[in-house]
Amino acid sequence: MLTHLVLAALLAQQPGTSVSQFVSVSDSVVALTNVRVIDGTGAPARDRQTIVLEGGTIVSVGDAASAKIPAGARTMDLAGRTVMPGYVMLHEHMFYPSGGAIYNEQGYSFPRLYLAGGVTSMRTAGNMSGYADLNIKKSIDAGTMLGPTIDVTAPYLEGPGLPIPQVKALRDEADARKMVNYWADEGATSFKAYMHITRAELGGAAQEAHKRGLKITGHLCSVTFREAASLGIDDLEHGFVVASDFVPDKKPDECPAGNAVQRSIATLDVNGAGARDLIADLVRRRVAITSTLTIFETFVASQPSAPSKALDALLPEARRQYEQTRAALAKSTDTTWNILLRKEMQLEKMFADAGGLLVVGTDPTGFGGVVAGYSNQRALELLVQAGFTPLDAVKIATLNGAKYLGRDAKIGTIAAGKQADLIVVRGDPSQRIDDVENVELVFKKGVGYDSPKIFDSVKGQVGLH
Q1: In this predicted model, what pLDDT tens digit does every residue of 177-205 receive, in sequence order?
Q2: CATH fold group of domain 24-85+412-453
Q3: CA distances in angstroms from 462 to 71, 106, 128, 201, listed in the order given
């Protein structure tokens, strides 16, 4: 009976009937006046600006006093607000932990939450449901569903050993190559290697992806970062805290047992030759690093709990699961993750300072405290905690992601000729990064969506669908 009720509820909320109610700006020509602009390049914020949008494109950005506003344009006085580029986030998922080793697809709530939080373009970094992500993307692109533009990553490229029944175990290198080509044919635009893949499988998968002009990333363990870089990987997920490069006597193609990787990072001298040489090698090979500090901070009791507004988005059972685990964490005397989070922050800053392309995502997994949309905003705050300036944090979350996707000519910054993907927030994130939480409007291709209204539409839904 419950299954039928849930199905009925989903059918009643089919996306085609609900997109328009969240649109607050749909005029063909719009002028956003008296705004502060953070353009995503890392340049200082500019006050008293006017941005003119037409047909989904930014046609001009300049001083409000001298701006030419086309006749008939909808003019919006946004004094006290800041406009930033829409976020380009590169480690997102459409699933959420439901307990045990099962992850539930959040095809209704997560696309909405990402858009409401300011994400206008994103890459899923792993796929538990095969065709679901591809069909969600198609619905969003068709305008029948709320959500960002999505680059869909295929199901995981993983070897035997992962206790998640939704993930296929590769048989060999030929199987890895076959899987890449199958999912590329089906429409996937990215691939992700996982913890128990072999070097041969990773190398074969990278070759097949690159033949098709596609990229491959990885959350690795059995293969070291340095090995993956030599095999042609384009990106490494989660930063350095998962790198098995520093485990003594690591065996080829094997993920070290227990907490060996964490122990090796906890004792690593981040200023030593080993860390610096690895960073230099990754930079030289143009391998990007994806920061996912949002997931790591959930394991650190001294870091803030998920905010109440994010917890309000959870199904009551999911919220209870999170709060129970968080309470147990608070009683733990293990401070390993305190050390790991601090070192990860240091290493990410070192990588970026060395010229590496640092991108960012949120990874809504763990024990449930990372909620789409809210966590995308939190990701910028954590980059500032890591030592980046607010302007640099915005750049990492916008231009850097666009560069990785090869779309920086179109998205990632605010400039004439760019796609009108914009976030309007109250306040000044260039001075107070927490103001990124004050989202009022999100423009995607020139259409303005009511962020608070979208957030309200999914209260109590995350964990269900």
Answers
A1: 999 999 999 999 999 999 999 999 999 99
A2: Urease, subunit C; domain 1 (2.30.40)
A3: 44, 7, 16, 35
